[in-house]
Structure formats: structure tokens, C-alpha cells
Design a protein that fits this description.
The complex is a heterodimer of chains A (470) and B (96).
Chain A (H helix, E strand, L loop, with lengths): L3 H9 L4 H14 L6 E4 L1 H16 L11 E5 L26 H8 L3 E6 L33 H8 L5 E6 L5 H7 L2 E4 L19 E6 L2 H11 L26 E5 L9 H16 L3 E5 L7 H16 L18 H12 L2 H14 L5 H24 L2 E5 L15 H6 L5 H5 L4 E8 L5 E7 L5 H16 L1
Parallel strand pairs in A: 2-3, 2-4, 7-8, 7-9
Antiparallel strand pairs in A: 1-3, 4-6, 5-6, 5-10, 9-11, 10-11
Helix pairs in contact in A: 2-3, 5-6, 9-11, 9-12
Chain B lengths: L5 H10 L6 H18 L35 H6 L4 E2 L2 E2 L6
Antiparallel strand pairs in B: 1-2
Helix pairs in contact in B: 1-2
Chain lengths: 470, 96
């Protein structure tokens, strides 16, 4: 993997930004077999590199990320390549405007070089639902990289770029970060503007970086976070997210429910090892019970499909996106365009969502789920009165084999069981590398904080990173 | 356990405006029954006295001045993505 500092040092010792970008593009080409990337933005990236080289020559201030190449998940709208969401529905879609997160990074001097693979429309946990083929795990190409930000996680693990942007609705940054051995940041709901990012479930969609180390993730997060007039759910940014270990949270709870049966023993053991290391470093660590987190997945698979079914009405075959050849009447055009453009998992979620919102079922399913969500949030609120942060596994297992879960949607959903609760409660939750299993596949530790405690979580993440360096 | 019939699936697909095939309906009948069976565990959860939560970060009624914002895009760019256009219009099949 490469860090932001690696690239900064190269530039400092005389490398041109153009050579940095050419190098990144060459690495992307050489790593094609992993299918982490859907498209590259060669012309646009090289043009920006030349501009930055010129400005560096003139001794202008180019920004904190000057010349740093990055990759964005292909559900971020950007100029220079199509924005597909890895779906046939959008395979020819040219973004008419750009995501705020990308504009902010570019204003800080970073250069978007490519768009990464994902489960189509971010529906999935393995990147196998991509209409452009599955991504392979850099640690073992027979395994999945996780998902839905699997392409972004694999790109960072392969060292193509120092950081990549992802989206996390129920675990889509944390779980691939865990499977690929990189740092993954799912921030507080509303911390980063979602303007220009293809919506999935609006009450839990978040944006965050995946990076090779905590400090880089914090640096990037510092650039992209903050209030945006064009996303009314955004929060005001605190002064800085830079990790300062002295400000770390000191009392930590291990979520007991996440260590019950069904967890791969090595994953459970890794959590306990991390807890011991934290204790030795002076933290108070003890088990805490949050009974409702066990219900999180059931709540999630009602609420999120419901929001998907609503958000996905925009794909009508008329304004943009795939349109059926045979146009027929208006109803036929809608029906055929949507049947052809969406894949099985997209349809499954739209159908579940439509069902739980339909007349006669909305109270039993949707309102009930949103009420259990309140119960879950209350338990987290109580826990954070006593603990500064909570820890647990990111996923029940390390990366599973390609094809292992594709014919069993419910089994695939279970991979999200430890990540969805923080999403439903809008809490910041990070995945930090915490060792490997016997097959040498990475294991991530999940750390969860109260809303808007992202800065303290970065400090804890940095501490964990240092303890694991030994 | 929730029994979803193939007709239920076809009805929901019609509401969602997805013209699924008969084979798809068959497959989704099984998938939806399984998934809805799993989420049914919420039925037995006591939620007396609790209200549903729809927005989680406490922001309410965020407003802005009613003025034109420059979104740095153009009519041409927006129309370019429409599958069928006619001059400055998006073309749709005849409705009436």
C-alpha cells in the first residue's frame, strides 16, 4: 500500500505530478485482473496534473492534497468518465454535475484518476452484484473483496492510490475495508455531503474514505466533511479531525451480542486480543450488552428496501438511464426499462420495499421497524453515557469465497449483521486492521462512537493502529 | 411464517412498475418469503410507548433562501442523457 506522505515525498524530491498520475494509471492497468476499477479518467487527470505542476513551479499554494491521485466509487458523479453505479441501468450515463466530495478534494489539489467497482447501485456485500463483473480480493483472488465498496477497498489494498472514496449505507465501507485490510471510515450521518452521489437509502446513506492508514483517512475526511447547502442533512464541521492520541476515548465497551455463536472463532479472538492490548495501554475495557443490536438486521432489511423502492422510482427509462427498445405505451416502457436495467438484487430490494410500504402492510412492517429502530437508538444512547466508544467485529467472518453466497440472498444479508445497527442509529463507525486469520486473510476491528464523535474515534483508531504496529 | 404467493409478487412488481417474467416471479416468491420470514422476528418486540424514528441526526426543517442557484450544468447536458428527445423536449409515448 502507499500513503499520502509517500507521494508528497516523491513530489518534494522532484517528481512531477504528471509522473505520479502516469504511475497510478500504469498500476491500475497492471492490476486489471482484480477488476477493482470500472473506468479511468486519463485525459482529465493528466490535464489537472499539468495544471498543478505549473502552479507548483510558480510557487503557488496548491492545497493540502496537491497531486495526490485518488479513486471514487462509481456511484459518485464526476466529469471525465461515465457514472454507472456498476449497473446496466446507467451504463451510458454522463454526469451533468459533480459530487461535492469530489469537488472539495479537487479544490484541495487531489486528482481523480479512476472510478471503482461496486455491487450495482451499492446493493450487496461482496461486489459480486456488479453488472461489470466481480472484483477479486487482493489478498486472495478466489475471495470476494467485500462490498459494496469492494473496488475502492481493493484499489487501496493493491496500492493503486493512497485513498479512495466509498459509500456506506449498512456496512459498505467497513466490511470491504475489513476484508481487504485497509482503514474504512463510515462517519456520523450527515457529516459529509451526499450531493452528487447516487442515492440508495436516504436515512442511512453516508460517504467516507478508505485509506492505508488512519492519518490519511483523517486528512481526507477533514477535506470532505462539512455543511453543504445542496444536502440539507449535512452537519457543521468541527475544527479538525486530526487524530490526537491524548484526546482518545478512555472507557470502551465490547458489544457482547456481536461475539455470540456464528462468529468465526479467529474473528472473535481478534476482538479479545485488541481489547487486551487496549487494557495494557491503560484503557478501561469491559463487555456491554445491547440486546437490540441483534434486531438491527431485521430492521435494516425493512427500512432500507423501503427507501430504495422510493428512491428508485426515478429510473423510468425516460429522463435518463436504460430505456427499452420496444417502447409500447408508457406503462410498458416503464416496466420493460426497469426489468431490463435492474439486476436481480436491485429488483429483490425494490420488491421487498414496495411490499412493506404497501397498503395493509405498512404498519406491520415499516412503522414497526422504525419503532424498533428507536429502541435500538435508545440502547446506544444509554451505552454512550457509560462508554466513550464501543468495539466489536466488523463482520462475522473474513472474506468468503467468490460464488459462495450468491444463490442465497438471506445468507448474503447476514454478512451485514454487525454493521447495520450503527447505520440505523447514524453513528460513526470505523474499520481498523486488526490482524489476520489462519488463511492469512485480514480481520478488521469495528469501533463505534456517539454521533459527532468522529474526531475522538480517529484518535482511538490511531491508537489501535500504533498498538498493532507493536 | 409469511406465505407470499406468486400472485403477491406479481402484484407488488406491478406497483413497482417492473415487468418481471414468470420465472423471475417464481424465484422472487421464494426469496421474499425467506426474507420476510426473517424480519418477522420484530413482531414480538415490545415497543410500547416508543415512536418511530425517520431522521437520525436531529436536524429539522432546514431551509434556504428561495433564490436561483447556479448548478453549473446546462439544458444540453441534461437532455443529452434522455433516451429520446425532440428539440428541447424529452419524448414520451402517447399518454392520452
Amino acid at each position: 500500500m502507499i500513503s499520502i506522505d509517500d507521494i508528497k515525498n516523491k513530489i518534494k524530491s522532484g517528481a512531477t505530478v504528471r509522473s505520479i498520475i502516469e504511475d497510478a494509471l500504469a498500476k491500475i492497468e497492471a492490476a486489471k485482473e482484480f477488476n477493482a476499477v470500472i473506468s479511468t479518467l486519463r485525459d482529465r487527470a493528466l490535464q489537472r496534473a499539468d495544471e498543478i505542476d505549473q502552479r507548483l513551479k510558480n510557487n503557488e499554494d496548491v492545497g493540502i492534497l496537491a497531486g495526490i491521485p485518488f479513486i471514487a466509487k462509481d456511484n459518485f458523479l464526476a466529469f471525465g468518465a461515465k457514472t454507472t453505479a456498476a449497473s446496466n441501468m446507467l451504463k451510458n450515463f454522463e454526469a451533468p454535475y459533480q459530487a461535492t466530495a469530489i469537488e472539495k478534494l479537487e479544490a484541495a489539489g487531489a486528482i481523480l484518476v479512476a472510478k471503482s467497482n461496486l455491487d450495482a447501485f451499492a446493493h450487496g456485500g461482496s461486489t459480486e452484484n456488479s453488472d461489470f463483473g466481480a472484483t477479486k480480493n487482493p489478498h486472495n483472488p478466489k475471495c470476494v473483496p467485500g462490498g459494496s465498496s469492494g473496488g475502492s477497498a481493493a484499489a487501496v489494498a493493491l496500492g493503486l492510490v493512497p485513498f479512495a472514496l466509498g459509500t456506506d449505507t449498512g456496512g459498505s465501507i467497513r466490511q470491504p475495508a475489513s476484508f481487504c485490510g485497509v482503514v474504512g471510515i463510515k462517519p456520523t450521518y450527515g457529516a459529509v455531503s451526499r450531493y452528487g452521489v447516487i442515492a440508495m437509502a436516504s436515512s442511512t446513506d453516508t460517504i467516507g474514505p478508505l485509506a492505508s492508514c488512519v492519518e490519511d483517512a483523517a486528512l481526507v475526511f477533514d477535506v470532505i466533511a462539512g455543511r453543504d447547502e445542496r444536502d440539507s442533512t449535512t452537519l457543521k464541521k468541527p475544527e479538525s479531525f486530526y487524530p490526537i492520541i491524548a484526546d482518545r476515548p478512555k472507557k470502551i465497551g465490547i458489544i457482547k451480542e456481536y461475539l455470540n455463536g456464528g462468529v468465526q472463532p479467529e474473528v472473535a479472538k481478534s476482538v479479545m486480543t485488541q481489547a487486551e492490548k487496549l487494557k495494557a495501554a491503560g484503557y478501561a475495557v469491559e463487555e456491554v450488552s445491547l440486546p437490540s443490536v441483534s434486531l438491527g438486521l431485521a430492521v435494516y432489511y425493512i427500512v432500507v428496501p423501503a427507501e430504495i423502492s422510493s428512491n428508485f422510482q426515478r429510473y423510468d427509462g425516460i429522463k435518463f438511464g436504460h430505456s427499452a427498445e420496444e417502447r409500447g405505451d408508457l406503462q410498458e416502457l416503464y416496466g420493460q426499462s426497469r426489468d431490463q436495467g435492474f439486476n436481480a438484487e436491485n429488483k429483490r430490494r425494490i420488491l421487498i420495499g414496495t411490499y412493506v410500504l404497501s397498503s395493509g402492510y405498512i404498519d406491520a412492517y415499516y412503522r414497526k421497524a422504525q419503532t424498533v429502530r428507536t429502541k435500538l437508538i435508545n440502547e446506544f444512547t444509554d451505552a454512550f453515557k457509560k462508554y466513550d466508544a464501543l468495539i466489536g467485529p466488523v463482520a462475522p467472518t473474513t472474506a468468503f469465497r467468490l460464488g459462495e453466497n450468491v444463490n442465497d440472498p438471506l445468507q448474503m444479508y447476514l454478512a451485514d449483521i454487525m454493521t447495520v445497527s450503527a447505520s440505523l442509529a447514524g453513528l460513526p463507525a470505523f474499520s481498523v486492521p486488526a490482524g489476520k486469520d489462519q488463511a492469512n486473510m485480514p480481520i478488521g476491528l469495528q469501533i463505534i462512537g456517539a454521533q459527532q464523535s468522529d474526531a475522538q474515534l480517529f484518535s482511538l483508531a490511531k491508537q489501535i493502529e500504533e498498538l498493532n504496529r507493536g | 411464517m409469511t406465505q407470499i404467493s406468486k400472485d403477491d409478487v406479481k402484484y407488488v412488481a406491478a406497483l413497482a412498475k417492473i415487468a418481471i417474467t414468470d420465472d423471475e416471479a417464481e424465484k422472487f416468491t421464494k426469496d421474499l418469503s425467506e426474507i420476510l420470514g426473517y424480519v418477522e422476528q420484530l413482531d414480538s418486540v415490545n415497543t410500547d410507548g416508543l415512536q418511530p424514528t425517520y431522521q437520525v441526526n436531529g436536524l429539522i426543517n432546514i431551509t434556504r433562501d428561495d433564490q436561483i442557484i447556479d448548478y453549473k450544468t446546462s439544458r444540453e447536458k441534461l437532455l443529452a442523457n434522455a433516451p429520446k428527445t425532440n428539440g428541447e423536449f424529452v419524448e414520451v409515448p402517447k399518454v392520452l
